[in-house]
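DATA SHEET
Item: assembly model
Revision: 1
Owner: S.N.
Input lines:
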Amino acid sequence: MKVTDYPLTDLLAAFRSPAPTPGGGSAAALAGAIGASLLAMVAGLPKPRAATTEDLARLAADGAACVALGERLTALIDRDTEAYRLVVAGFRMPKGSDDEKAVRGERVQEALRMATETPLDVMRACADAISRAAAIAAFGNPHAASDVQVGLELLGAGLRGARLNVEVNLESITDGQFVAAMRDEATRLTLAGEGGIQAADRAAAEPPDPASRIPAGEVT
Amino acid sequence: MKVTDYPLTDLLAAFRSPAPTPGGGSAAALAGAIGASLLAMVAGLPKPRAATTEDLARLAADGAACVALGERLTALIDRDTEAYRLVVAGFRMPKGSDDEKAVRGERVQEALRMATETPLDVMRACADAISRAAAIAAFGNPHAASDVQVGLELLGAGLRGARLNVEVNLESITDGQFVAAMRDEATRLTLAGEGGIQAADRAAAEPPDPASRIPAGEVT
C-alpha cells in the first residue's frame, strides 16, 4: 500500500512512528502538495478580481498548473519513501568479498542519486507553484488572500525541507560532477522560490489594479 | 465523514477543489500535525545522542509531548473546517426583520470567535512542539537532524499560517476586548515560536556535548 493511500490519521501515525519511512523527504513533498492545492483552490473560486479576458485566462492557466503540480508533488511523497527504502536496501547488501563490496557500493551510489533527484524534483515543483502565486493573489477572489499566504508558507516549507534532503544525500555521493550540478540547481531553485514568495507577498499587499500585469514565472 | 478520515489523495483533492472547506486554517493545522509527528519520530529512533539517564528521560518526555501535540493538531484540522462551516451558516441566516438581524449577528459573532480560537489553539500547539525541538535535536539520533529541521519548517508554516487565520477572523469581530486579547496572545506565541526555531537551529548546529542542558520550554 502506498503512503498516499493511507487515511490521513494513519499517515500522521506513520510519520510519528520510529520507523524511518515516511520521513522528512516525504513530509517536504506533502507540504508542497498541500500548498499547491490551496493555490489551485483560490484560482478556482467564484468572484475573482480579474476583470479582463486576458487576466481570467491567466488565472485559469495558473490554477490548472497548480492542480498538476499538486498531483506531481503527491506522487513524489511515495517516490521519496521508495528512494529511501532503496538506500537502506543497498547498505544491507553483503560486503564479504571485494566483488560484493564493489556491487554494494554501486547500488548504494545509484540509490543515493535517486534519493537526491527526488527532493530536487520537489524543489522544482514547489518553485514552479510559487511562481504562480503572484498572479493568483492579484487575480483570484480577494477574500481568499489568507489561503494564498498559507499556501506560500507550505510551499516555502516544502522548498526548504526538500533542499535539506538534497544536501544530506549529497554528503555521501562520490561523483563530484553530480554533486556540483545538483548543488547548483538547488541553490538556483531556492533563490527563485524565495524571490517568488516575496513577489507574491507584494502582489497580495498591492491594491487591486485591473491594468496590472504580473510577469509570468520563469523558474522551471 | 471527517476530513481526517479521508485517504490522503482525496484530502489533497478536497484542498484543491473550489469548495471553501477545507481551507487555509485546516492546512495550517495539518502542517503543524506533520511537523510535530516528525519530531516525535526522531525522539523515538534508536541510537540517540543522549547518554545520561536524565537526558534520555528528557528526550522521551519531549517525544511523548510531540505525539500528543500531533494528535491534538490532527483534531484541530477537523475543528477548523467545522468552525468555518458555522460562520458560513451564520451569514446565511435570514435578515428580514430587526429581530432576525439581531439573532443572525449574534450567531455570526459566536461562530467567528470559534473560528479565531481554533487557529489560536493551532498556534499554541505549534509553539509547544517547537519548544521541544532543541532537546530532540541535541539528544536524538544525530542522523535524523534533517528530519528535525523539516519538522521545524512545517511547524513554522503551521504557526504563521494559523496566525493569518486568527487575524482574518479578528477583522470581523466587534468585541474589542476579545480582539485585543487574541491579538496579544497571537503576537506572544509568534515571538515564542520564532525564538524556539532559532534555539533549535543552534542546538542542531552545536557539536554534541553530553554535559549540555537545554532549558525546558516555557511557551504554553
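QC remark: Residues 98-139 of chain A form the longest helix (42 residues).
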